[in-house]
Structures are given as structure tokens and as C-alpha cells.
């Protein structure tokens, strides 16, 4: 069964195709957690959401979920536990105003604490960076998986194939996985006390595993439980004020977004700077960089994850052919960077570059490695991509070694 064909699906269409009686699942309809301050007699308990990753993305989407009045978030915090529990964090947003002393419903120090007692969660929301070469997701949420206290998983992460390890770990439980890509401009101050959100937001969500690419045989059937989990997730985010669309092929949306991440995160990592660096480069010196981007794009088209006419998030329009997509991926970011530099405005740094500058492990496997593996799977020769991955992997290993993590 398909949630959409060529255009983004509306919530009302989903509701028409799958009436509420089909979507009601007890474990997703009512929370069993006991609130710290109690609930008025006769009032249904809100949905409980366990958040893994109380950073900038986690904070903003926790706030959106709780704005509905129908959800409460229990967040597992580590180094920032004291900061959040003592009311030292400010959410500064264009969309919802400024919230000083913001914190979610409950902040705990560990998964074990979050899972204590007779508690269940309607969703476990993961907003950490996906680092399978450092801490695979099943290891990260090992205690949550073992508890069997989660009715559905929801991932808001960058990269391609971020769901695979978790899916393999929980598929025997038949627990739905909702996978989401976010376009949102969020920054956290160096001291972690201010989360700033400027501009628009767009979240695209879908069930994992997704449908096969359009030109391939379809064998995937979504279960009523999966549809219920996606419908409830969509409703919560919509009611909280988020801009959200649903897609059958979330891996296709991930690849489209990852064209930009794989291309420019990798390039910025090695020049330790922004794309305006290349403003005085002659074309023959830009050519290898453009060839690298073209290999990324060709991988998408060969695998069926990119196709002409595909809806283009976040601003709309349709995907063109491989040549035009590759050229746009180069020119759009390059020209934006040059324009900002000429105005005296610092050009945008990819988050991966910021991680490297702060000597933190970065998303090499899901941003670059996943594309290379897909290219090999489809018999593509991608020497520039292969070189970039090898160099990125070496950089990652040096960071891990310097931190004493492996």
C-alpha cells in the first residue's frame, strides 16, 4: 500500500485511506507512565516520548511535540544534565518566540533511570548523530531495546542508511520505525545555554523499510501498526506547529539531501573552510571536485533513489537529469558562499566541519561511506568518491585515536 504517488501526502488523505478505527493501537493511544505532578481525574494521560539526544535538534523537536499538550518528553542527558535541570537553557526561535529556562517534561541521567518502574513509551526519538563506526545505534540504545518498553522508534538524523542497524536489532519485535529528514537552521551557543532556531523548518517522514524505487518490483506492504505509528507521529508534529510531509520512499529523500551533505561536507572537511575558498580557482582545478559531486549524483540515479521528476525538498520543484543536479549541487552552495563572503557575512559551515574543528567523530559512514557502498553495489566506478571516503575515514580514525575512544 502506498502513502503517496508523486506529490506530498496530506494528513487528511492518510486519514481517508486508513480510517481512525484501523489506526488505533492501544500501545500508541495512551501512555502508562506516571507523571511527576499527576493528572486531573478523568483526563487521558499524554503520549510519552523517550528522547535520546538532548542537543539542538532534540530540544527543538521536544518543544514542538510538547506544544501539542498531548505529549511529554523524557530526555536522557549526559554532560548537559545540570544545565537543563537547573533552567539554564534558552530556546530562541523565530517561529515560537523565546523560552528562557526551557526544559522538557523530564530530564534523566541515563536510559536505566528513564526505564525504571512501570513505564512505557509510545516513541523513542533518536536525534543523535549516526556514528556506526563509533557507537552503532543498537549499542547506543541497548537498554531501551532490551526493555521492550517502546511501541515505535523515530529517527531524525542526517545521512543514508541510518536506520539499518536499528532495524536489524528490532525487526523480530515488529516495532515500527519512522525515519525523518530535517531541514532546519539551528545553532547552539558554545556554552550550550542557548539554542537558536532561525528561518523555516521542514520535516519529511516515512516508514522504514520504505517502498522499493518506482521502477522496481514492489513487494513491501506496510502493516497497520506501522501506518498507525506514522499517522500519530504526523499528527503530533503538525499539531505542534512543525512543517511535515510524508513519503513512501524515505531513502530516496535521504539520498537527495545527502547529495549536498556528501559533496560539501567532504570538501569542507579537507579545506578546513567554506566554498568561497574556490572563488579564484581556474576551472581545471575545480574540475576534480565537480567530478566527485557527479559521481555522488550518478550513484543516486543508478540506484533509483534519484529520478527525473522527483519532488525536490525542501523548496519544491522537480529533480532534473544527472548533469543538472550535479551542476546545481556545485553552483548553489558555491555562489551562496561567495555572496556571503563579499557581504562580510561568514559563509555557512557544514556541521561535519564544525565536528572536525572540535575534534569530534563525524558522520563519515552514513554521509560518504554509504554512497560508496551503494555505488559498488550497482557496479559504478567512482574513483573520486572512493578517494574521498578513504581520506575521510583516515581523518575519522585519527580523531577517534586522539580521543582515546578506540
UniProtKB/TrEMBL annotation:
Ketopantoate reductase C-terminal domain mapped to chain residues: 250-396
Listed Pfam families: ApbA, ApbA_C
GO CC annotations on file: cytoplasm
Domain of life: Eukaryota
Positions of the Ketopantoate reductase N-terminal domain: 49-199
InterPro entries per record: 6-PGluconate_DH-like_C_sf, 6PGD_dom2, KPA_reductase, KPR-Related, KPR_N
Protein name: Ketopantoate reductase PanE/ApbA C terminal-domain-containing protein
UniProt organism field: Papiliotrema laurentii (Cryptococcus laurentii)
